[in-house]
Amino acid sequence: MPSFTRGTTTIFYESYGVGPAVLCFAPGGMRSAIALWSRSPWHPVNELSDQFRVITMDQRNAGGSLAAISAEDGWQSYTEDHLALLDELKIEQCRLIGACIGGAFALALALRAPERVNAAVLQQPIGYDGTNRAVFLELFDTWALELTQPRGDTDREALRAFRERMFGGEFVFSATREATASCQPPLLVLRGNDVYHPASISEEITRIAPHAELVRDWKTGEDLPRAVARVRKFLSEP
């Protein structure tokens, strides 16, 4: 796996195929890493690398990627990593695919740098539906415990602030409703249907974003190849 270093952060990534760039953010919560695409109903490398340049990555402090943790960390820290990876690969514009937490990463990047994002697929994006905050805080705490036990470069106050910035907010956590309503890149939303990926979040993103389409059923049976074909067509559109 190739990698690049930005300050104290090292990011591992992989690149497959040729064509328009598609940057992919894996599922897995705070453990979002390349290997977790194997648990997804479909794998973007397998399905798209014959037509696109498909780039996958381990997020900071997941998989093989490492970064220091500070009280200032939050969604913007990941977005800076994503922009740095695009710069490293000399990619001016790309498409995005984000699954689970990756949907929040993709939406944040599309809002931060719309001039660099042609379109984004949000696969069962995470979000706060008014009842499920505890499951995200628990995911963060479990990840933090696993991460910090062998390390001596973090403290509880920094982690507490980081945790609040990640999952203390509303809606998609990485983006407010107001910001999402201004999102210019087109969005294709594959609807979620569980406590981590509420259907209401997918539906509201589609309702309020100005250029968004919802795919209701996509995970199993004949729905899956139809959804993958729609993703391919969506990413091919100018």
Task: Characterize this entry briefly.
This protein is α/β, with parallel strands linked by helices and 238 residues long. It has helices at residues 44-48, 75-88, 101-112, 133-148, 156-167, 177-180, 199-208, 223-236; strands at residues 3-6, 9-16, 21-25, 53-57, 94-99, 117-123, 187-190, 212-215. It has a single domain, classed as Alpha/Beta hydrolase fold, catalytic domain (Rossmann fold).
Distance between the termini: 31 Å
Helix and strand composition category: alpha/beta
- Identify the overall geometry: globular
Under CATH at level 1, the class stands as Alpha Beta
One letter per element, helices H and strands E, the order comes to EEEHEHEHEHHHEHEH
Please explain how this structure is put together.
The protein has 238 residues and is α/β, with parallel strands linked by helices. The chain contains eight helices and eight strands. Strands 1-2-4-3-5-6-7-8 form an eight-stranded mixed sheet, sandwiched between helices. The model has no long low-confidence stretch (mean pLDDT 96).
Descriptive labels:
single chain; 238 residues; alpha/beta; Rossmann fold; 8-stranded mixed sheet; 8 helices; 8 strands; 37% helix; 18% strand
Topology:
Blueprint: E1 3-6, E2 9-16, E3 21-25, H1 44-48, E4 53-57, H2 75-88, E5 94-99, H3 101-112, E6 117-123, H4 133-148, H5 156-167, H6 177-180, E7 187-190, H7 199-208, E8 212-215, H8 223-236
Parallel strand pairs: 3-4, 3-5, 5-6, 6-7, 7-8
Antiparallel strand pairs: 1-2, 2-4
Helix pairs in contact: 2-3
